[in-house]
User: Fold this.
Amino acid sequence: MLLGDAEMASTFGVYHAESATTLGAMNASTRLELRVLPGAARSGVVGRHGSSWKVRVAAAPEGGRANAALVRLLAETLGLPRRDVSVVAGHTSRDKVISVAGISAKELEDRLSSSVEDAR
Assistant:
């Protein structure tokens, strides 16, 4: 769970937040809690892991390769450019918080859910 921001409401591991840029404009982003399994045989969204999502990546957790593979996988799965997906917490942990710009929490949930169904 994220701590501190009263504006973030938990919806099964997905949060919608607004962050101010240096010019003061508001930029909507959604935060996603993940459990990442690096070094897997194949990459993909596995499904729910408690209130988070479980994701496998084939890349090894060395030199940031697993994080880069995770960003690529999520951007492709969600149909977003890579610049809109970033790891904001848990860079060296299996439990991560990801920021996703340009998508609502509901749409994020829908796209992740459909990607799990497609993988089966």
Q: What stands out?
A: Helices lie at 65-78, 105-119. The beta strands are 14-20, 26-37, 44-49, 52-56, 85-89, 95-101. The two ends are 28 Å apart (CA to CA).
